[in-house]
Amino acid sequence: MATTTAHDTQTARTLAVVQQVEEAVNRHDVEAVLALMTEDCVFENTFPAPDGTRHEGRAAVRTAFADLFRSSPRASFDREDCFACGERATVRWRYHWIDADGTPGHVRGTDILRLRDGKLVEMLSYVKG
After folding, report:
1. Strand residues in 18-67 grouped as ranges (E)
2. Residue 3: other Cβ atoms inside 10 A
3. Which residues contact 6 (CB under 8 A, 6 or more apart)?
4. String of DSSP letters for 70-106
5. Fewer beta carbons within 10 Å, N or C terminal of the chain?
6. Which residues contact 103 (CB under 8 A, 6 or more apart)?
7. For residue 129, is pLDDT > 80?
8. How many domains, in total, are found in the chain?
9. SS3 for 39?
10. How far apart are CA 84 and CA 10, in angstroms?
11. What pLDDT, on the 0 to 100 scale, is given for residue 2?
């Protein structure tokens, strides 16, 4: 008979938060994303190459997500794979968008996530390219 450990419980909580973040991002709901992040959160996006931009603290992260949602109003993420262990997770995704002229596009990437006390403290994004 298998037993549940504190580590298993934390991993399950991490996976639940990852799912909630994905749903909020796909709704383009900045406030819901931020509700799942700590005050001292860090988000590193994928642009400009090669290192992206580092956003530190909720105000900076709010601006980064608001800009993303405003610039890509029809964009969405599809999860390809997710792995979690304790308070860390890795998500492989495909980001889809539609250009102003109606041309669809996508890019594949991954997020490396770290939680603290059930909230995201770090989200580092990388793309294939």
Report:
1. 37-44, 54-56
2. 5
3. none
4. HH-TT-EEEEEEEEEETTEEEEEEEEEEE-TTS-EEE
5. N
6. none
7. no
8. 1
9. strand
10. 9
11. 58
pLDDT of 1 above 60 = no
pTM: 0.91
1 in any annotated domain: no
4-56 confidence digits (pLDDT tens): 687 799 999 999 999 999 999 999 999 999 999 999 999 999 999 889 999 99
Tell me the C-alpha distance between 49 and 129, whole Å: 9
Domain CATH code at residue 25: 3.10.450.50
In one-letter notation, the amino acid at residue 91 is V
Q: Does residue 13 fall inside a structural domain?
A: yes
Residue 35 lies in a domain: yes
**Which residue reads 């700590």 in tokens?**
38
Whether residue 31 lies inside any domain: the answer is: yes
Structural domain that includes position 108: 6-127
